[in-house]
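Suppose you are handed a protein chain with no further information: no name, no annotation, nothing but its sequence. What can you learn? This example shows the usual starting point.
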Amino acid sequence: EELQTQQEALKNANEELEQQSRALQESQTKLKSQQSELEKAVQIRDDFMAIASHELKTPLASLKLQTQLFQRCRAKGDSNIYSPEQVNNLVDQSEKQASRLIKLVDDMLDITRISTGKLTIQKEQIDFCTLTKEAVERLKPSMIQAGTPPEFICAERIEGLWDRFRIEQVINNLLTNAMRYGNKKPVTVLLEKVGSGVARLSVKDQGIGIPKEAQERIFNRFERAVDSKQISGLGLGLFITQQIVKSHGGRIWVESEVGKGSTFF
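A reasonable first move is to predict its three-dimensional structure. Written in structure tokens, the prediction is:
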């Protein structure tokens, strides 16, 4: 009986030891996973800081250079700097660089809000068709100048609950992409009802296209379909766009063929 009792105690001790061993292995696995996630987060932060620093310096350097040239000409007594043409050029260039800085800062703020779960969505009853038409009209002069004139098609009113500011942000991001990659060809913006309670917006360009292996990746942070040296920006536009669309219960995808353009839905 004493031997049996000792065997039972030993068995219980072995079982407890096995449980502790399993718990230790699970803790180690969890710790490794957390360490990997932490390293990934640090890498993302470092990548973000490197890209943001570079992108912020570019418009700032341009503004500084324009100011220095203006000061140098003024110091020399060059009256040509006050001509309407020179002043208009300085104002236009300054406005473009300032707008670029604002866009970069807005993207950085949105990434912070998304990361902390604080991206606010304030829905209201709006006509999607009117909203899209207004957004296209605002960008139309820039798109024409870029050689990518837009055509907007919407056959009927499409009313529903959306966040006006965020949906405008989505449209602006997609149209800006079409300008960048549209190969100086017309862009088609189509808005239509599909099924019950669903609206589908598509932006179609005739540009360089996106390789199939990159079509999902471009919606990640800091990703582009082309080398970042060719196109400026943080590489956050489509990621932010995707988060906004998801927050409205929708989805976003792209259909594309290299050399034949892309359509974002």
